[in-house]
Structures are given as structure tokens and as C-alpha cells.
Design a protein that fits this description.
The protein has 313 residues and is mainly alpha-helical. It has helices at residues 2-31, 35-47, 49-60, 64-80, 84-89, 100-119, 124-151, 168-199, 204-229, 233-258, 265-280, 283-286, 294-312.
């Protein structure tokens, strides 16, 4: 049954990821909002749902360290794995996307998070600070969307894969199926894979650092794969940037309100800096207008495999 749960979870993730991308690009068309803005909000929040559910459950189960480890591990996987694997299937033309503003916000969120880790532990005060930063980010995104809508009031933006005749009920259904299906698929996959790993004698700590982090990043991976195949580079890159910001500010913000989260010394000496380094690797695609081609895909994927080897050893 565990193998079946794992397989079904993967299928649900792929279908839900496709549904979320379709819904997001059609929503952007109907609202006159760039697909990038939608991917930074609706898509990012939807694909981060598994991390949020696991973080809250970890607090209730009195294993708060799992919440922190999952967020840090997922953010690293989001850049190296989630952008690396899709690039092996199709070139992502990120050179056509303007993600400079949102990327700088992600780096700022990463820096704030690292500072909070060194101050540690995470308490309700930390949670309020992180959530306040998230509100500021969302406010900026709303203003950018409004500015874009006014500037292009007479222009019809062509978004590949969007259907101008798609009604609001269908758009809402696509988004709902994606947002509901992604965490469901992730849970089935993580539960099945975890049980399989335990059967083979792998420790729960290693499972948390690898399978849980990868499993909760599968929604981002599924969404990004579908976005890459549909040539929606803005959705792919925006999804990763938005998800990373939401993981750091939203998930850790909410989790910190639920309970106190201690910071393991290992995070201060290794994991946080790997997460930051992975985030800085997006600079060529954001500022130098480079596409994420197959060579980059191999490089990013290989770096993530190397990271897993170090963690496992």
C-alpha cells in the first residue's frame, strides 16, 4: 500500500500542478495582471500549503525543530531541484522575465530569517515580525499589479496557455483543484515514502532532512515542470521566488505563533548558508538575463544531489 500511496501521490501532484498553472495564467489574463504577480501569490501560496500543514503539525506533535528544518530544506530544494529538473525537460526562457524586484524581496526575507535564527528561538514576537514582512511584500505585489493594470488598460496581454473565453467558475475550479490537490498529493507521497524508508531502516532524522523536504517541495516541482512545458517561465520562476518568501515569512510566522521553535546550532553553521547560497545562484537568471537551459539544469540538479550526499553522510 505504501508503494501505491507514493505512486498515487505523484499522479495527483502532476495533475494538480497542471491545474494550478492553467488557473493562474487564466486568472492573470482576466484580471489584467502579469502572470508573474499571480505566480508570486496564488501559485506560491498553494504550492507552499504542504510546508504550512507540516509546520503546524510539527508544533502540535512537540517536534518544532521539524518545522524549521522543513522550511530551510524546502527552500534549498526549491532552487536547486525545482528549477534544475524542469530545465532538463525544456529550456525556461527566464531572460524574458523581469523578476528583479521580487527576487530582491526574497533575498531580504532570507536575510531577515537568518538574523532571526541567530537571535532565536522563534517566538510569537518573531512570528509577528515575519508576518509583518509578508504583509509588506503582498502590499507591494498588489500595488505593482494595480500599476500594471492601469498602464495596460487598453492592451490585451497575451499569455500563452490562457483561454480568454474561460469563465470565472472554471478558473476558480482549476485553482481550487490545484490548491487542494497539491497538499493532498504531497501528503500521500511523504507518508508512503516515509514508511518505505522506515522499512529499510533509514532513521527518522534522515527522512526529515531528505524525504520530507523533497516531498513538500514536490508541489513546486510539479507546478514548475508544467509551467516549463507550457513555456510559462514567469510562472516557473515566480513560483519558486514566491514560495521561498512565503516559506520564510508566512509559514515560519504562523508556526511561531503556534509555539516556540528552537534553532539547532547545525542550522547556524551549515544549512542556513547553503540555503542562502542556493538563493544567490538565481542572480544570473534575474539580473544577467540568462535562460535556465539544460546545462544549468544538470548543474543545479547535481548540486542538490551533492547536498543530499553531505546531509546523509
Amino acid at each position: 500500500m505504501d508503494w501505491l500511496y507514493t505512486a498515487v501521490g505523484l499522479v495527483i501532484l502532476l495533475l494538480a500542478g497542471d491545474s494550478l498553472v492553467k488557473g493562474a495564467v487564466n486568472l492573470s489574463l482576466r484580471l489584467g495582471v502579469p502572470a508573474l504577480i499571480v505566480s508570486l501569490t496564488v501559485v506560491a501560496f498553494g504550492t507552499s500549503a504542504p510546508e504550512l500543514l507540516i509546520a503546524i503539525q510539527a508544533i502540535f506533535d512537540d517536534v518544532p525543530g521539524l518545522a524549521l528544518g522543513n522550511v530551510v530544506g524546502s527552500n534549498t530544494a526549491n532552487v536547486l531541484l525545482v528549477l534544475g529538473v524542469p530545465a532538463l525537460l525544456a529550456i525556461m526562457h527566464t531572460s524574458e522575465c523581469d523578476t528583479r524586484s521580487s527576487y530582491l524581496q526574497m533575498i531580504a526575507a532570507t536575510a531577515l530569517f537568518i538574523v532571526m535564527c541567530f537571535i532565536g528561538p522563534f517566538t510569537w514576537i518573531t512570528g509577528l515580525i515575519l508576518l509583518a514582512a509578508l504583509v509588506a511584500m503582498l502590499t507591494h505585489a498588489a500595488r505593482a499589479a494595480n500599476k500594471h493594470r492601469k498602464a495596460n488598460a487598453d492592451d490585451e496581454e497575451e499569455v500563452e496557455g490562457a483561454d480568454p473565453n474561460l469563465g470565472w467558475p472554471k478558473i476558480a475550479l482549476l485553482l481550487a483543484l490545484g490548491i487542494i490537490g497539491l497538499p493532498l498529493g504531497a501528503k500521500l507521497f511523504v507518508d508512503g515514502a516515509t514508511n518505505i524508508a522506515l522499512t529499510f531502516g533509514i532513521s527518522e532524522t534522515v527522512i526529515g532532512l531528505t524525504l520530507v523536504a523533497i516531498g513538500t517541495s514536490l508541489p513546486e516541482l510539479a507546478t514548475t515542470v508544467m509551467a516549463a512545458l507550457r513555456r510559462q517561465a514567469d510562472v516557473a520562476l515566480g513560483n519558486v521566488i514566491g514560495s521561498n518568501m512565503f516559506n520564510l515569512l508566512g509559514i515560519m510566522g504562523v508556526a511561531s505563533l503556534v509555539g516556540t521553535i528552537p534553532v539547532d546550532p547545525q542550522f547556524l553553521t551549515f544549512d542556513l548558508w547553503i540555503m542562502l547560497l542556493a538563493s544567490l545562484m538565481l542572480i544570473p537568471f534575474v539580473f544577467l538575463k540568462m535562460d535556465i537551459n539544460r546545462i544549468w539544469g544538470v548543474a543545479l540538479s547535481a548540486l542538490y544531489v551533492a547536498y543530499l550526499v553531505i546531509v546523509l553522510v
